[in-house]
Each structure stands twice: as structure tokens, then as C-alpha cells.
Amino acid sequence: MTASKEFDNVLDECLERLLTKGETIEQCLQSYPEQAVELEPLLQMAVAAKKAVAVQPRSEFRAEARYQFHAALGEVASQRSRSFLGWFPRWATVVAIVLGLILVGGGTVSAAGYSMPDSPLYPVKLTTEQVRLALTPSELSKAQLSAELADRRIVEIIYMANKGDAQQVEAITQRLDERLIMLATLASTTRDVTQEGTKDGGAPEVLTLPSVEQPAPSPPEEATGEGDVRIETDERAKLRVTVARDAVNHPAALRSVLGQAPELAKPALRRAIAVSVAGYERALKALD
Amino acid sequence: MQNEESLVHRAQQRETEAFAQLYENYFDKIYRYVVFKIGNRTEAEDLTQQVFLNALQSISSFKWKGRPFSAWLFRIAHNQIVDYLRKKTRQATTPLDKSTVISDSNPQLAIERKLDIEQLLLATKRLTKAQREVISLRFAGELPIAEVAKVMDKSEGAVKALQHSAIVALRKTLVVTNNDSK
Prior knowledge:
The complex is a heterodimer. By secondary structure, chain A is mostly helical. Chain A has 11 helices and no strands.
């Protein structure tokens, strides 16, 4: 191997260690003392370049892009379902699929989970959600599920607003409102239990509204009480972070489609924005 | 990689959750790659969305034949960028000026302190097309050398050599000592 090729390999190995394994330039130089003089400035240049390109997408764009993509996925799922369900009467389709879900579960659940309100699978999606809520044991888990379902409603509102279907936007907004009311109610009923449990060890740290891209904070290290209560408190803190993030992202995503949505859908979309802002505010208060 | 292969296989069967997972895994990397290639964050947003929608449409055509999914996805992004640049009637060609050059008594410290994406973009205009592509895929797209080689249809050795010469050229462009700049 020529000296030049050998150096290319050493440089690449060091870059891999620096960029993906979190090692330092010094560690690399120690591995290759003979090439250190030549390597060092190049590694410094590479690290600086890596830092410079580490741009993050805007949170509004990230949210909107995700919704648009999920809407496209929903279309794919409904195309697939239409191909074999098109000839069924609607009621028979729902019954058949719900029975199928109960008996075998699996792929249809996933397809229905992404279906949009204009899809034949949508009633299955709503029914499945009701079943999941009914089968969820704790109030806190129900609150977590309500937050997840609210997220789905936002995706659906954006999808139907882009199609100019004001009636559907109104109907989904109503469902969104119900979910957010449920979330706030469940959050307030679980509050006493979790706060009682932390009395001896101090109240759980109050989480401030996180920046949108911030990952959920790790739970505090010190134990504050019995295991179950501790887990419940951690879960509540996680839910608070999720809801705080959605409180920013969801209204932002709805606003971002307001400009391009057909005129017909705009009043319904404005109401959806108002409902999401008020609903998340209420839920966050209940979680404080 | 096995895990990704399984995800891709499920996505090809139109399993939406699998495709959603692939989307999450690659969204930031593709966005950074596009920003770095076109130098415009707003237009990069549209292109990034379009890359994933195109991938969704054509996932069934993807085949594992020694070419990883990342190489296929970045190839879609690359083609989309080429189309975009071709359609763009007027390209801004900003000459490299004094503000791009970093000057300090300790040039290494100066780079770390001052280099931002705009300066880096201007500096990459001095690179060859292939060198620029390696830097984009390696640093913005965060691909390992083997995958960069697959995207570019080159040997790993050739890509390593390009990477080396590109970093040397960037350093030469961006760093001057006080003595040089006076």
C-alpha cells in the first residue's frame, strides 16, 4: 500500500472515530503518533465542518412535513384497502374488519391506524381507538393514549383541510376537542395520587415548557418513595413533556396549512386552531 | 443493518409504520444534505419533503443488491437536487470574498470559533464536484465511506482520497495566518 493510501485510511478511520464514536482528536493522534503532525489540522478542519453543517430543521417545518408524510402514508394504506374492500357494503366492511382485528390483529390494525376520514378503514380506526381506551387499565395510561389520539386528529384535520372538506374538518375538530378534554380531566384526576407519593422525598421537579426539539428529560436520580408511585411520577413528567411539545407543534402545524388550504375549509381550520390552543392550555394546567 | 433491511422489506409491503420509521431515521440527514447542496433552507424544506414522497412512491422498485437503502435514498435526493438546480434559471454565484477567509493568530482555534455553514458553503465552491459530493454525503448526510462510495459509484479507496484532498482544500481556503492576510 502506498504511503498516500495508507494516510487516506488513517484519516478516514480517525474521522469515523471522531464523528460517530465521540472520540477526541487527541485520542486519534495518540493512535497514530507518526502521522500526528499531518493529521491534526485536517481533523480540526473536519470537526469544524461537521459542526457547521449540523443545521436543524425548523420545528414548524418538521411538524408540517411529518403530517404531510403521514397523510401520504394514509393514502397508500387506503388505496391498499380499497383494492379488496371496495365491493363490500360499508357496514359489512366495518364488522368484518373489527372481527378480523379481534381474531388475528396484525397488518390491518396498522393500515387502519394510518387511514384518513375518507377511507373505508376510518370507522375501524375509531372503533379500535375506543377499544384501546376501554382496555387501558390506569388513568394515566388513558391520558397518554388521549394525547396520542389527539395527535392523530391533527394529522386528519390537515389532510381534510388540504382537500377542502370543511365538514370533515369540523367533525374531526369536535373529536379533537373531546380527546383534549379527556386528557385534561384524566391528568387532573391522577395529580393527587402522584403528588401524594412524593411528599416524603420532595415534590417532583416542575418541568418548564421545553424547546420543541428537546428530548424528554431523564427522571431524577434520587428515589422519592415506593416504586409504583415513582414510575407513575416519571410517566406523568414524560406526558407533561409530550403535551408541552404538542401544544407548540400542533397549532403551528395547523397554522402552516391555513395559507394554502382552500378558502372553503379556512373557517373550520381556524376553529381547529382555536380548539387546539385552548385544549392544550387546559391539559398543561391540569398536568402542572 | 439487518434491522433496516427488515424495515425496508416491510415498507415495501406497504406497512406504513415501517416506512414512518425509515422517515424518522433519515429525515434530518436528508434535510442537512439538501441544505448543504443548495444553500437555501427554505427551498431545502420543499425538496426534503419531495424526496420522501418520491421514495414512498418508488419503494417497491428498491432492491437489496449490495446497495444499502441509504444509498438509494440519497441518490433520490441527489437526482432531485440536480433537477432543481437545472430548472433554476438564475443561480447565485457569490464570489469568495474576504469575509470567507478566517484569519487569526491561531488558525485552528479560529476555525472552530468562527466557521458557520455559509462560510463553509462558499469555501466548497472551490472544490471539485466530486470532492463537494463527498463532503456533503460524509458530513451533512453522515454516511460512512462505504455508503458514500455506493451513492457515488466509486471505490472506497477513491472516496477516501477525495475526502482527504477535499479537507486539505477546505483548510487551504479557509485558514490563513495573520501574516498571510496582512
